[in-house]
Specification:
The complex is a heterotrimer of chains A (617), B (237) and C (260). Chain A starts with a helix and ends with a helix. Chain A has 617 residues and is mostly helical. The longest helix of chain A is centred in the N-terminal third of the chain and has 32 residues. In chain A, 73% of the residues lie in helices and 2% in strands. Chain A has 25 helices and 4 strands. In chain A, 56% of the residues are buried. Chain B is α/β, with parallel strands linked by helices and 237 residues long. Chain B has a single domain, classed as P-loop containing nucleotide triphosphate hydrolases (Rossmann fold, 3-Layer(aba) Sandwich). In chain B, 35% of the residues lie in helices and 27% in strands. In chain B, strands 6-7-8-3-9-10 form a 6-stranded mixed sheet, with helices on both faces. In chain B, strands 2-1-4-5 form a 4-stranded antiparallel sheet, covered by helices on one side. In chain B, α7 packs parallel to α8. Chain C is of the alpha/beta class. Chain C has a 6-stranded mixed sheet with strand order 6-7-8-3-9-10, sandwiched between helices. A 4-stranded antiparallel sheet of chain C has the order 2-1-4-5, covered by helices on one side. In chain C, α7 crosses α9. The C terminus of chain C is likely disordered. The longest helix of chain C is centred in the last third of the chain and has 19 residues. Chain C has 2 domains: 174 residues, P-loop containing nucleotide triphosphate hydrolases (Rossmann fold), CATH 3.40.50; 71 residues, no CATH class. Classes of the chains: A mainly alpha (617), B alpha/beta (237), C alpha/beta (260). The interface between A and C is large, with 34 and 40 residues.
Chain lengths: 617, 237, 260
């Protein structure tokens, strides 16, 4: 390989690193001050790009000058900054005190809303942007042509870093941001209006995301997938760099930019996997990222959000369970549609209970549970379609596939906690998604595979429904039993105080790992059953939206309840199945519902039911 | 005439389901140092937090400089001239000494000489030598001084000082007592929560004893020192 | 008989020597206090013995076995119980459930998937709670207890593993003075009755001088004095660097009931 080629490759890596840093710096600053991981940061980036492809061409009509191009880019960033202010004032302000799981979900609700609104405003087509006047040419470097605009981008990252450094060390606003990153409450007790500080921080963070998006328009068309694709990378950068650390984000962005630029030469297909492997490696050695620091222990011990004392099932619960069971078994008496929905509800109920086994019982907030569901589905589906095996062994393979994947990823996941853990689970789910998506020869890529049909005896919808009922209910009852057993209690104990658990001789990491594996296996079984109920498999089974669906189910059902997620899955899936065909704006509706749930109903259906019964008649 | 700067009546507060304060009544006169004493868990820190708005009072009134402040956000209370020095110091360890002071800075009310870093360095000479040092690299005693200095930068009229001697070596405790006395000389009113009678006796004019969330006794420090029955009933061994 | 023998423990943080060749020994049934100013290396030393920190040099021997650098869960299985400066308990459990959990761990039953945890080791847990005077509160959620009672439950949790050595980091921190005396008396009683060695750090001079058999004074990572409470109190160097005036008074006061 020639040196000049390597140099150009390095330069293009630096250009991506630079762009990535601009975006990630905003995410990390917002996290530092507000302690919220803002999923909608990717939406701000996307909005920056859409605004820029609207504003910049309009400005260039007046004069095709570089100045006007950058005025347009900056104007887009400022508008996005204002949208950040709106989000802070309308939403974030209300959720600063709720557990991080709810915060992540609420900001994901914004992602869904923005996706639909962007489609409404700009339509479904990609919109190419203008090239930057004055930077349209190529520059010759050691006989290789390299775009001038990319060279410009390389400069942007360090320039933004320098400006941020000045802001953080030379202005009162910056000093307050750094102080608040460490102790928000104390900053308030010293007379600083936190609301203003947080609003200002959101302006800064969103504007950086907007700037990042607007700067991309000469390179990529504004499109509706920019948000989730960039947010994953931005998460990875902030996690590797250490959340809240701007210099850390810079180093991490450089590492990732260069890794991608050179990785593509060696493993063209799995650059994404390389990035995530880097993240996993860094987190194993430095669990709080390169320049991050451990979360300060919360001053006062608080009751964990989740299952407290699982207790016995009382008469009302028993009646409810019997009624629900009877309805499930009686569905074939209604019609085929009811059976279809009922089967799916059972499957999702198992997935949700297995997720809540982690979240509610173990305090392990997995944001990528769909990975194990999806890999279970692929495990079963591939055996049938590619290996020609019948349903029975495939259904045995499904939990094994989900469990093995969970054991592999869980090995890294259980080393972390809190928000880092959530982001790592999501990252692993994205790896699994990428592998399934890109390995077209085996998985059928985007299209997936069809022909995953049950064995002959179970081919009718009704029989398959009963088969699903037996398997899912057995698995749910088993998981419930485990929650009451010493193993489940140990997971709760480790959630309450890992330090105390360690001191009484519990290997916390090992128990969490076993729990993660068990939950993955249960999700895998659900996935396998789902594959046969649909007759097909495709990558959406592993996607972030699927993980969010599961989380919405347990949130709706109530994460402090053992069986609430069953009700949550039933309510969520029936509503989704009913409304999805009726509206073009399902995401808008879902996004608003998730936010409403977080704001109004944080204890879910089970919580609402419990408080209803506690009220004197 | 006794000029009251802080007047608390019937203050109730707690954490979640737990109630800690069951109607606290207390006053603090302008320029006075009062010690809020009592066993741990009696509600001393909770009282100070509830006055400062860090915990929302569930009932009762808190009047500061003639204004009702119960239920106000902490930053608004601070801006009215009430300073708060927390128990666990809570300095900004990533920031330098000067930057810590900058976070606390607020304009002085008209007619009063404002605290500046230079004045504070004269007050706490140890800090002067390390103005550009990262606060996290300082010793516990130095951090405790910084947290008081940081609050003084807001030019408060009164200061709530939570357990300033807790966790410090006795030599440093003596320096803390000295600092409180000099704050008094500057005309500041100080409500200091304290378990150590020696410390309280060294700095305060008056003591209030909290037990189970209410004020059970108040009077001169000298009386308290002389009266072993009261001490045994409410304070120590 | 020597239970714990610490030889030349050394720990560096960056350029700072937090513990400099610290050596001491502890007998069965003995209470040994480590005191010293903040930042003197008390916690560092303590955490090296307790398995939270790996020493850069030196050794820790427990009943003749080398346990240097073992994690605290392994130490627990070898008979080391632990309480923390801020009590660490399982907040979502009842008082009884906390002790049952410790017993489940002690019996190696934490991986059972099907048995019912709520009925296991009930009687043993109640007996332990009875020993610390908390049996009457067994059914309450631990989050509802007063802090002093939480510390008692924490002691019962530590005792569940039938320890030979108890490590107590500032056992009386955050407690009322009267609760402090009662807790230390309880610990001392149990330690002497069952020949458990107790190593503790403490800021409260009353607790130290009233209950420790021997005291180590640590300053800047080095032991500057060691001996009986009387010897340590009389040491002019100790008075100069650590106790200061009020501390010396407290140290004197603590023994007043005994002497007069």
């Amino acid at each position: 390989m020639e040196w000049s080629f390597l140099l150009v490759q390095a330069l293009s890596g630096l250009a991506s690193a630079s762009s990535l840093f601009v975006i990630a710096s905003g995410l990390t600053i917002v996290f530092g001050v507000t302690r919220i991981v803002n999923f909608a940061h990717g939406s701000f980036y996307m909005l920056g790009a859409y605004l820029a492809v609207t504003i910049v061409p309009w400005l260039l009509e007046f004069d095709r000058s570089p100045t006007l191009f950058f005025v347009g880019v900056l104007a887009s960033a400022l508008v996005v900054g204002l949208l950040g202010v709106a989000m802070e004032m309308l939403l974030l302000r209300r959720i600063y005190r709720v557990p991080e799981l709810f915060q992540l979900l609420a900001t994901f609700g914004v992602v869904l809303i923005v996706q639909d609104l962007v489609q409404l405003a700009w339509g479904p087509m990609d919109i190419p942007g203008p090239r930057a006047p004055g930077l349209r040419h190529g520059v010759t470097i050691l006989d290789q042509r390299f775009p001038a605009y990319e060279l410009f981008l390389i400069v942007v990252g360090p320039a933004v870093l320098a400006l941020l450094w000045l802001l953080m060390h030379r202005t009162r606003f910056g000093v307050l941001i750094r102080a608040a990153t460490q102790d928000r409450e104390m900053v308030g007790a010293l007379g600083v209006n936190q609301a203003m500080l947080f609003t200002g921080t959101l302006f800064l963070g969103a504007a950086l995301a907007g700037l990042g998006g607007a700067l991309q328009i000469p390179r990529i068309s504004a499109n509706a997938h920019m948000d989730l694709s960039v947010i994953t990378e931005a998460f990875v950068v902030t996690v590797i760099g250490g959340m809240g650390s701007v210099p850390g984000a810079f180093i991490a962005a450089l590492l990732i930019g260069l890794l991608q630029a050179f990785g593509v030469l060696i493993f063209p297909k799995i650059t994404l996997v390389l990035v995530f492997l880097l993240m996993a490696a860094v987190l194993v050695v430095k669990p709080w990222g390169l320049l991050g620091r451990p979360e300060a222990a919360a001053g006062r011990a608080v009751l964990p959000e989740g299952i407290l004392d699982p207790g016995r099932m009382d008469w009302a619960g028993k009646v409810l369970a019997v009624v629900a069971l009877a309805v499930m078994l009686a569905l074939p008496l209604i019609d085929a549609y009811a059976v279809k929905v009922g089967t799916e509800v059972l499957i999702f109920a198992l997935a949700a209970v297995s997720l809540n086994f982690l979240v509610g019982n173990g305090g392990i907030v997995s944001f990528g549970h769909a990975a194990y569901f999806g890999l279970g589905a692929y495990g079963a589906g591939l055996l049938v379609v590619k290996a020609g095996l019948p349903m029975e062994p495939a259904l045995i393979a499904a939990p094994i596939a989900g469990g093995l994947a969970a054991a592999l990823f869980g090995f890294f996941v259980v080393r972390l906690s809190g928000i880092y853990l959530a982001m790592l689970t999501m990252a692993f789910a994205q790896i699994a998604y990428a592998v399934v998506f890109q390995w077209v020869e085996v998985t059928g890529g985007d299209n997936g595979l069809v022909g995953v049909w049950p064995s002959h005896w179970a081919a009718s919808r009704e029989v398959y429904h009963y088969l699903t009922a037996v398997l899912t209910l057995a698995a749910i009852v088993f998981l419930r039993r485990v929650i009451h057993a010493p193993f489940g209690a140990t997971l709760r104990a480790a959630r309450d105080s890992a330090q105390r658990a360690d001191a009484i001789g519990i290997d916390v990491r090992m128990h969490r790992w076993l729990g993660f594996t068990l939950a993955g296996a249960a999700a895998g079984l659900a996935g396998g059953l789902y594959a046969f109920s649909k007759g097909s498999i495709d990558p959406t089974l592993l996607g972030i939206p699927m993980s969010v669906d599961f989380l919405s189910m347990i949130l709706l059902g109530g994460i402090q309840s053992v069986l609430g997620p069953v009700a949550g899955a039933a309510a969520f899936h029936s509503l989704k199945d009913f409304f999805l065909p009726l509206t073009d704006h399902w995401r808008l509706l879902l996004g608003l519902s998730i936010i409403a749930m977080v704001l109004v109903f944080p204890r879910g259906l089970a919580g609402a039911f419990a408080s209803l019964r506690r009220r004197p008649a | 005439m006794v000029d009251t700067v802080l007047d608390v009546t019937g203050l109730r507060a707690g954490y979640g389901p737990a109630e800690v304060l069951f109607g606290v009544d207390l006053t603090l006169a302008r320029g006075e140092v009062a010690a809020l004493m009592g066993r741990n868990g009696a509600g001393k820190s909770t009282t100070l937090k509830a006055i400062m708005g860090l915990l929302t009072p569930r009932a009762g009134t808190v009047r500061f400089a003639g204004q009702e402040i119960a239920g106000m956000a902490p930053y608004r209370i601070a801006r009215l001239g009430l300073g708060y020095v927390p128990e666990e110091r809570r300095i900004f360890t990533d920031l330098t000494v000067m930057e810590n002071l900058a976070v606390g800075r607020r304009a002085a009310p008209p007619g009063r000489e404002a605290w500046t870093p230079e004045r504070l360095f004269a007050f706490f000479p140890n800090l002067a030598e390390m103005r550009h040092r990262r606060a996290g690299a300082m010793s516990g005693g130095e951090q405790q001084m910084l947290t008081i200095a940081r609050t003084l930068m807001g030019n408060p009229e009164a200061v709530l000082l939570d357990e300033p001697s807790e966790g410090l070596a006795p030599v440093i405790v003596e320096q803390m007592a000295d600092a409180v006395l000099r704050m008094k000389d500057e005309g500041l009113a100080v409500l200091v929560s304290e378990q150590n009678l020696d410390f309280a006796a060294a700095v305060a004019d008056r003591a209030l004893i909290l037990e189970k969330g209410t004020v059970r006794w108040q009077g001169d420090i000298a009386t308290l020192e002389a009266d072993e029955d009261i001490r045994r009933a409410y304070l120590t061994v | 008989m020597t239970l714990l023998a610490v030889e030349g423990l050394t720990k560096r943080f960056g350029g700072v020597l937090a513990a400099k060749s610290v050596s001491f020994a502890l007998d069965e049934g003995e209470m040994l206090a480590i005191i010293g100013p903040n930042g003197a290396g008390k916690s560092t030393t303590f955490n090296m013995v307790g398995g939270q920190l790996r020493p850069d040099g030196g050794s820790v021997m427990l009943a003749g076995k080398d346990v240097t650098g073992l994690p605290s869960r392994a130490l627990c299985r070898m008979g080391v119980g632990r309480t923390f400066q801020v009590a660490q308990t399982f907040l979502s459990f009842s008082v009884l459930g906390n002790v049952q959990m410790a017993l489940l761990a002690h019996h190696g039953q934490t991986r059972q998937l099907l048995s019912d945890a709520a009925v296991m080791h009930r009687d043993a847990a109640l007996a332990l709670l009875d020993r610390v005077g908390m049996a009457a509160q067994a059914g309450r959620p631990i989050g509802e207890l007063a802090y002093g009672d939480v510390k008692r439950v924490e002691l019962a949790i530590a005792l569940a593993a039938a320890p030979r050595l108890l490590l107590m980091d500032e056992p009386t921190a955050g407690m009322a003075p009267s609760e402090r005396t009662a807790l230390m008396a309880l610990v001392a009683g149990i330690a002497r009755a069952e020949r458990i060695g107790v190593l503790f750090t403490e800021h409260d001079m009353d607790a130290v001088f009233a209950h420790a058999d021997r005291i180590l004074v640590l300053v800047r990572g080095e032991i500057i004095a060691r001996g009986s409470p009387e010897e340590v109190r009389a040491d002019p160097e100790v008075q100069r660097v650590y106790l200061g005036h009020s501390g010396t008074r407290a140290a004197g006061r603590a023994r007043r009931p005994v002497h007069g």
